C-alpha cells in the first residue's frame, strides 16, 4: 500500500518536474528571442540614424533640411536609454517632414551617389517598423507566459527583468515607402 | 542566404499557397540565394530540384473540407532531418497553425523562424481547443507576416501579437505582356474560378446576367474554371445560355490572355478570401475589375480606386455596375491606368525585397536554424547522443 503510494507520488513529482523544466525552457527561449529581436531593432535604428546623418552631411539636401535631419539623427544616436523612444520618434517626424514630397526624393536621386543613398534610406525606414513589430511581438509572448500562475509561483523567470515593449512613432515618409498595409 | 521554406499543402495539388511558395522560391533563387522547399508530395510526382518531399499527404476532414495534411512520427522525423541537413540561416513556414508540416517544423526547429499566415478563418472551436498546444510552437516564430490587413486583424484577434503585412506577389510583367485573343474581345465579361464552388460567386453573376443582357445584348460572359457547366447555367433562361461560354481549365498563358482580352473582369466572390490574387493578376493584365466589396478585395483595389466594388451577394448592384462599366469606355480606361500603377506594389520585385528584409531583420543578431534538441525527452535529461 505505502509502496504504491510512494511510487505514485514519485511519478507525480517527476511529471511536475518535467513540466516545470519544459516551461522554464520555453521561457528561456522567449528571453533569448527578445534579446535577438532587440539587437535587431537596435541595429535597424542605428542604421537609419547613420544613413540620415550621411545624407544630412553630404550636401545633397538644402541647408535647412540638412540641419533638421542632422540634429534629429544625432539626438537619436546619442539618446540615453529612457529618452531613446522619444528621440527616435522625433527622427521619424523629421524624416517625414523632409521627405514628405516625392519631388524631394527625386532630387536626392539625381545627385551622383544619391540613388544609393535614397535606396538605403528607404530600406532603413521600412525595416525599423518591421523590427519593432517583431520585437514587441516577442515581448508580448514572454509577458503572457510570465503572467502564468505556475511561472510566478515557481519563479521560473529568475532575475530576468520584466520585458518592456519599444513604443515609438515609426511611420515612414510616404514618398520613400509607397507600400500598402504596413 | 540559405533559406528553408515549409509548404503545408501537397505540392501536386494546385493552390494559392503552393503557387506563392513556388514563385517565392524561384524569385529568391534568381537573386542568388540557396532555397530548399519542404513539401508533402507523392513519391512519383516529378518535383523541381529545390523541393524536398516530406512524404505523401493524408486526406483528412479539417476545417469544413477535406485537406491533405502531413503529420505523425515519420513526417516529424523527415522535418528534423531536413532541418539538420539544410543548415539554414532562416526558415520560412507557411500556415503554421494548420496541423501539418508547418506546425511540425515549428515544433522541431529553433533559431530565426519566419511565418506567413495566409488564411483569415473566423475563430474556430478547434483553434480555441488547440490554443495551449499551438502557443508554445507559435512562440518560436520570430517574425510573422500576414498577406493582407484583413488577415493580420484576424491573426491579432485569435492569437495575439502582431504581424507585418506583405501581400502575395504576382509576376506583373507576365500578365502585362500577354497577347490578347481576338475571339475573347468585344463586350466580354470574364470570370475565373471553380464553377461549383458557391463562394467563388458564379451564382450571383448568373443571377445578374439577365439584367446585363437586357441592357447590353451584345455582352458575352467567358467562364474559365472547372465544374459542372450545365448546372451552372441551369438558373438562366434557355435563350440566354448561348451568351455564356465555358473555357474549362485554362493554362497560365491562356489565363493571362483571357485577362488581357476581356472588357471587364468580374469577381463576385461571396467570402472566404483573405487576399484575392486573381484581382492582382487581372489588374496586371490591365483588365478593369468589378469585385464584391469583401474586406480583402476592397484592400487590394485600394478601396475602389483601382477597381469598382459592388455590395456583396447583391445581384442587382452587380448588374447595375457592370452595365455602367460596359457602356463607359472612358471609365474603363481610367480604371486600367490606375490599376496598372497600383499593381506595381504587388510585383515580385517589391514583395520579394520586403520578404528578404524580414529575413535579414530576424537573422541580425541571431544564430542559424537548428533542430530543437530541447523538445526531445532524452535531451532534457542530458542523454542526447549527438
Give the arrangement of secondary structure elements.
The complex is a heterodimer of chains A (182) and B (386).
Chain A: H1 2-57, H2 63-78, H3 84-98, H4 102-110, H5 114-146, H6 149-153
Helix pairs in contact in A: 1-2, 1-5, 2-3, 4-5
Chain B: E1 2-6, H1 16-30, E2 34-39, E3 51-53, E4 58-62, E5 65-69, H2 73-86, E6 90-94, H3 101-108, E7 109-110, E8 113-117, H4 125-138, E9 143-146, H5 149-159, E10 164-165, H6 172-176, E11 188-192, H7 202-215, E12 220-224, H8 229-233, E13 244-248, H9 252-261, E14 264-267, H10 277-284, E15 289-292, H11 295-300, E16 308-310, H12 315-326, H13 329-342, H14 348-363, E17 370-371, H15 377-380
Parallel strand pairs in B: 1-2, 1-6, 2-3, 6-8, 8-9, 9-10, 11-12, 11-14, 12-13, 14-15, 15-16
Antiparallel strand pairs in B: 4-5, 7-17
Helix pairs in contact in B: 2-3, 7-12
Could you please describe the fold and organization of this structure?
Chain A: This is Membrane protein. Chain A: Keywords: Membrane, Transmembrane, Transmembrane helix. Chain A: The chain crosses the membrane at residues 6-24. Chain B: This is Glycosyltransferase. The complex is a heterodimer of chains A (182) and B (386). Chain A has 182 residues and is mainly alpha-helical. Chain A has one domain: de novo design (two linked rop proteins) (Up-down Bundle). Chain A contains six helices and no strands. Chain A has helices at residues 2-57, 63-78, 84-98, 102-110, 114-146, 149-153. The longest helix of chain A has 56 residues, at 2-57. Chain A is rod-shaped. Chain A starts with a helix and ends in a 29-residue tail after the last helix. The relative contact order of chain A is 0.15. Chain B folds into two domains: 2-169 and 348-380, 3-Layer(aba) Sandwich (Rossmann fold); 172-345, Glycogen Phosphorylase B (Rossmann fold, 3-Layer(aba) Sandwich). Chain B has helices spanning 16-30, 73-86, 101-108, 125-138, 149-159, 172-176, 202-215, 229-233, 252-261, 277-284, 295-300, 315-326, 329-342, 348-363, 377-380, and strands at 2-6, 34-39, 51-53, 58-62, 65-69, 90-94, 109-110, 113-117, 143-146, 164-165, 188-192, 220-224, 244-248, 264-267, 289-292, 308-310, 370-371. In chain B, α7 crosses α12. Chain B is elongated. In chain B, the strands form four sheets. Chain B has a seven-stranded parallel beta sheet with strand order 3-2-1-6-8-9-10, sandwiched between helices. Helix content of chain B is 40%, strand content 18%. Chain B is built from 15 helices and 17 strands. Chain B is of the alpha/beta class and 386 residues long. Chain A binds chain B through residues 18, 21-22, 25-26, 29-30, 33, 35-37, 39-40, 43-44, 123, 126-127, 129-131, 133-134, 136-138, 140-141, 144-145, 178-182, and chain B through 110, 112, 136, 138-140, 142-144, 148-149, 152, 160-167, 299, 302, 345, 350, 354, 357-358, 360-362, 364-366, 374, 377, 380.
Amino acid at each position: 500500500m505505502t509502496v504504491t503510494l510512494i511510487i505514485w507520488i514519485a511519478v507525480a513529482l517527476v511529471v511536475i518536474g518535467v513540466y516545470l523544466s519544459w516551461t522554464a525552457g520555453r521561457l528561456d527561449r522567449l528571453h533569448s528571442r527578445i534579446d535577438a529581436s532587440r539587437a535587431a531593432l537596435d541595429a535597424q535604428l542605428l542604421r537609419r540614424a547613420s544613413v540620415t546623418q550621411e545624407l544630412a552631411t553630404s550636401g545633397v539636401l538644402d541647408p535647412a533640411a540638412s540641419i533638421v535631419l542632422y540634429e534629429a539623427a544625432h539626438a537619436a544616436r546619442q539618446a540615453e536609454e529612457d529618452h531613446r523612444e522619444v528621440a527616435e520618434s522625433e527622427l521619424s517626424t523629421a524624416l517625414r517632414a523632409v521627405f514628405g514630397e516625392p519631388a524631394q526624393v527625386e532630387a536626392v536621386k539625381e545627385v551622383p551617389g544619391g540613388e544609393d543613398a535614397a535606396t538605403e534610406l528607404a530600406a532603413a525606414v521600412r525595416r525599423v517598423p518591421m523590427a519593432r513589430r517583431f520585437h514587441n511581438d516577442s515581448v508580448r509572448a514572454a509577458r503572457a507566459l510570465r503572467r502564468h500562475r505556475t511561472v510566478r509561483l515557481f519563479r521560473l523567470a529568475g532575475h530576468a527583468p520584466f520585458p518592456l515593449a519599444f513604443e515609438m512613432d515609426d511611420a515612414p515618409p510616404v514618398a520613400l515607402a509607397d507600400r500598402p498595409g504596413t | 542566404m540559405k533559406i528553408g521554406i515549409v509548404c503545408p499543402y501537397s505540392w501536386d495539388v494546385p493552390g494559392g499557397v503552393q503557387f506563392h511558395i513556388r514563385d517565392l522560391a524561384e524569385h529568391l533563387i534568381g537573386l542568388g540565394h540557396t532555397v530548399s522547399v519542404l513539401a508533402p508530395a507523392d513519391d512519383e510526382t516529378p518535383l523541381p530540384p529545390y523541393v524536398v518531399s516530406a512524404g505523401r499527404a493524408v486526406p483528412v476532414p479539417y476545417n469544413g473540407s477535406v485537406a491533405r495534411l502531413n503529420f505523425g512520427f515519420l513526417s516529424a522525423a523527415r522535418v528534423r532531418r531536413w532541418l539538420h541537413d539544410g543548415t539554414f540561416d532562416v526558415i520560412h513556414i507557411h500556415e503554421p497553425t494548420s496541423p501539418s508540416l508547418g506546425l511540425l517544423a515549428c515544433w522541431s526547429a529553433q533559431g530565426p523562424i519566419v511565418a506567413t499566415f495566409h488564411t483569415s478563418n473566423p475563430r474556430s472551436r478547434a483553434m480555441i481547443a488547440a490554443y495551449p498546444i499551438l502557443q508554445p510552437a507559435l512562440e518560436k516564430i520570430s517574425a510573422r507576416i500576414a498577406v493582407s490587413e484583413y488577415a493580420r486583424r484576424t491573426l491579432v484577434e485569435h492569437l495575439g501579437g502582431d504581424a507585418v503585412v506583405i501581400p502575395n506577389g504576382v509576376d506583373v510583367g507576365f500578365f502585362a505582356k500577354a497577347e490578347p485573343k481576338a475571339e475573347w474581345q468585344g463586350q466580354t465579361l470574364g470570370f475565373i474560378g471553380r464553377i461549383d464552388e458557391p463562394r467563388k460567386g458564379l451564382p450571383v453573376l448568373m443571377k445578374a446576367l439577365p439584367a446585363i443582357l437586357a441592357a447590353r445584348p451584345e455582352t458575352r460572359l467567358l467562364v474559365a474554371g472547372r465544374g459542372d457547366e450545365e448546372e451552372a447555367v441551369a438558373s438562366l433562361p434557355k435563350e440566354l445560355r448561348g451568351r455564356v461560354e465555358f473555357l474549362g481549365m485554362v493554362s497560365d498563358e491562356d489565363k493571362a490572355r483571357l485577362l488581357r482580352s476581356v472588357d471587364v473582369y468580374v469577381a463576385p466572390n461571396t467570402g472566404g478570401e483573405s487576399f484575392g490574387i486573381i484581382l492582382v493578376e487581372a489588374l496586371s493584365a490591365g483588365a478593369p475589375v468589378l469585385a464584391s466589396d469583401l474586406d480583402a478585395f476592397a484592400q487590394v483595389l485600394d478601396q475602389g480606386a483601382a477597381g469598382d466594388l459592388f455590395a456583396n451577394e447583391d445581384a442587382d448592384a452587380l448588374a447595375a455596375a457592370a452595365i455602367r462599366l460596359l457602356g463607359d469606355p472612358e471609365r474603363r480606361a481610367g480604371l486600367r491606368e490606375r490599376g496598372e500603377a497600383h499593381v506595381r506594389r504587388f510585383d515580385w520585385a517589391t514583395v520579394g525585397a520586403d520578404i528578404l528584409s524580414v529575413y535579414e531583420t530576424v537573422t541580425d543578431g541571431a544564430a542559424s536554424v537548428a533542430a530543437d534538441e530541447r523538445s526531445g525527452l532524452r535531451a532534457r535529461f542530458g542523454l542526447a547522443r549527438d
